[in-house]
């Protein structure tokens, strides 16, 4: 009797797992997302990729969308523009800074970490996302900072 109960429970669990897999269908395929601006720039990467309930942002630098240049003045204005760019990509894709669960910060000079943190706190509030920071040479456009983020954005049911 005990064996039949276990087999029955396994069958039910298996059937439910199969049903969940079949019903999710195309929603499980990654969506490669680009704004009009990103499409015009024709760079060899997507601005963001949605996979399931997660939105993965490509690294953002402090490039000003209007001028396609980094702002003058060093790490503080660059960090501010970088975070503005992150916020824009999130909002364009139905997310916000409060949905971010993980960030990775690349700094041309790790000594600029405190200055970056000051600007970061202007954008992110407690509870802060998980985060890693590391020194990296050779960032695109000779940027001082690059930031990539992952946001958790549960998909709405379409029933």
UniProtKB/TrEMBL annotation:
The keyword Signal applies. It comes from the Bacteria. It comes from Steroidobacter agaridevorans. One of its GO terms (molecular function) is deaminase activity. Pfam families: Ribonuc_L-PSP. Keywords: Signal. This is Uncharacterized protein. Belongs to the RutC family. InterPro entries: RidA (IPR006056), RutC-like_sf (IPR035959), YjgF/YER057c/UK114 (IPR006175). GO terms for cellular component: cytosol. Residues 1-26 form the signal peptide. NCBIfam families: Rid family detoxifying hydrolase (TIGR00004).
């Amino acid at each position: 009797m005990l064996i039949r109960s276990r087999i029955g429970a396994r069958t039910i669990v298996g059937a439910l797992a199969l049903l969940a897999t079949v019903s999710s269908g195309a929603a499980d395929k990654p969506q490669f997302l680009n704004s009009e601006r990103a499409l015009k720039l024709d760079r060899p990467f997507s601005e963001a990729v949605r996979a399931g309930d997660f939105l993965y942002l490509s690294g953002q630098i402090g490039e000003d969308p209007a001028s396609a240049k980094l702002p003058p003045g060093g790490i503080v204005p660059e960090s501010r523009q970088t975070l503005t760019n992150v916020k824009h990509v999130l909002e364009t894709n139905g997310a916000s800074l409060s949905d971010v669960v993980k960030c990775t910060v690349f700094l041309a000079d790790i000594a600029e970490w405190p200055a970056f943190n000051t600007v970061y706190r202007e954008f992110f509030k407690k509870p802060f996302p998980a985060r890693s920071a590391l020194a990296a040479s050779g960032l695109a456009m000779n940027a001082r900072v690059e930031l990539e983020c992952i946001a958790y954005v549960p998909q709405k049911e379409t029933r």
